[in-house]
Amino acid sequence: MSTVLVHLPPPMQKRAFSMMLARAMELRDQGEQVAVAHCALSAGTCSANVLGNRAICAACRYSTRKSVETTGLELIPLAAAPPDVKTEAPVIGYNELSQVADGVNSGLVTMLRILTEDLNHVPVLRKIKRRYFQSSLQLLASMHRILEQRSIDCVEVLNGRYACTKIGLIAARSQGRTFNTLDFNLSGKPMVFRGHTPHDRTAIQQRIQRNEPDHEIARRYYDGRKDRRFNKFAAAHRRFRPPRTDDSVTRRVTFYLSSQDECESLGPDWKSPFRNAATVIQSACERFPDYYFSVRFHPNQATIVSDVCSPFENLLQYSNVQLYLPTDDVDSYSLMEWSDVVVTFASTVAIEACWASKAVVQLGPSFFDQLQISYTPKTTEEFLQILAGPLKPHSAESAARFAAYETRDFDELQYLICDSTMTKPVGFSRRATVFAKPAKEVNTVVLSVIQKIAAGQLKKRPKAA
User: Fold this and answer.
1) Count of domains observed in the chain
2) What is the pTM of this model?
């Protein structure tokens, strides 16, 4: 029997809270000695309370206590040590501080749809960053104390990306303890990631490869991604008129940009040598005047607060390139079929294009860069050399494995019934929702207001040359 500490997310995050509590109950049934931890700060800034509002913190603590009471699990508060308790404060080194800072950036980039570099350009965001960092350090210090005092063997957290939940992983790693993370898959099913996070590219691709390829499942999966009934982006972007090209064009190449803020939020391990995508594309336009290049922005980029389009304006001077902006009504799948070569920046289009028997080039890190579905150059010059030569499609076997991973690879929890539309706890319930629901609504409104403030201030900044 081992001792396991499950870190609960805020009850305002209904599905995630239910999943983590269900996991704790299941571990107890398996014979583990389980306790659950929760944030007990009185004015802490986190993903569910971006301004550190005391009322929201109170609602969070109360709903958590009431929800856990009926399960019989021990609830451990994460908070600063009381003044009357003599305990040596844990020493938090530079490496841990850096990890917390990455978690703060990750949370704010995702919640506010803003690029990392712009977080420091808006005064209100700088203040929120400091408060979020300070709150997370308090939680980390408390987590260190609990792991040591209780001799915890394993820590389990949600996702492990935001600073307020990442602190469990940071403390576990520093003390040489094991950890697991949990999250939902595409179908809304829970997944347990043992010893790594859902954004660990190598570990995720190893798990993908353990799935048996089933080409019928893959066919239904990739057809479903194109189906406008299930894909909101496909439903909103239906048109495609092939660019006007003449007989001198020898190759049609389409670049698919990813939602850049999402990539940046995954952390430093996702830092790409091709981050300046516009410069890479410009180099290709100049090197191959007989090629025709299309650039498709991800439709999801339309709601990013930061300016993601201006860096590409310089491409308009070239006659062999066409830009499709996030708001343009363009069918990305028809564009892919029209293309001879598909080039992606961390986009899932890479795996879809491989399944469609297209020659694919991936630039930078992605969840598919070790699956042998594409060419994976490390530098711009290597990319240009590959683009100059004969290109052929790679085997679609890994694409079939990925389809199986997305649809069949999950970890059932006996205390949770869920799919993409519904999450239902079994044997417990989320209590005091009369407080949790308004708290979530307030935070949502606050985030919306902050986004508008940030957008207005960023527009006033001079554009980079």
Assistant:
1) 2
2) 0.92
Contact 410, 189 (CB under 8 A): yes
CA-to-CA distance for 300 and 233, rounded, in angstroms? 8
| One domain, residues 235 and 322 | yes
What's the CA gap between 346 and 365, in Å, rounded? Answer: 6
Domain boundary among 389, 404, 419: 404
Range of the domain at 352: 215-404
Contacts of 5 (CB under 8 A, 6+ apart): 34, 35, 36, 37, 76, 146, 147, 150, 152, 154, 155, 156, 168
By the 8 A CB rule, do 156 and 3 touch? no
Kindly list the distances between the CA atom of residue 184 and the CA atoms of 55, 205, 252, in Å, as whole numbers in the listed order: 29, 17, 37
186/315 same-domain check? no
Q: What is the pLDDT of residue 464?
A: 54
Least confident of 154-158, 209-213, 421-425: 421-425
CA dihedral 279, 280, 284, 287 (to 10 degrees): 70
Beta bridge partners of 375: 361
pLDDT, average across residues 37-47: 96
Q: How do residues 289-319 score in pLDDT, each as one tens digit?
A: 999 999 999 988 888 999 999 999 999 999 9
**Could you tell me which residues come within 8 angstroms of residue 435 by beta carbon, excluding any fewer than 6 positions away?**
58, 59, 62, 63
Whether residue 145 sits in one domain with residue 278: no
Mean per-residue pLDDT for 361-373? 97
Residue the block writes with tokens 């990455």: 102
> At a CB cut-off of 8 Å and minimum separation 6, what does 423 contact?
14, 15, 18, 19, 188, 416, 417
Rounded to the nearest 10 degrees, what angle do helices 433-459 and 94-112 cross at?
90
Q: Please state, rounded to an integer, the average pLDDT across all residues of the chain.
A: 92
Tell me how far apart the alpha carbons of residues 47 and 10 are, in angstroms, rounded to a whole number. 9
Of 404, 425, 449, the residue at which a domain comes to its end is: 404
- The band of 88, judged by pLDDT with boundaries at 50, 70 and 90, is low
pLDDT band at residue 83 using 50, 70 and 90 as cut-offs: low
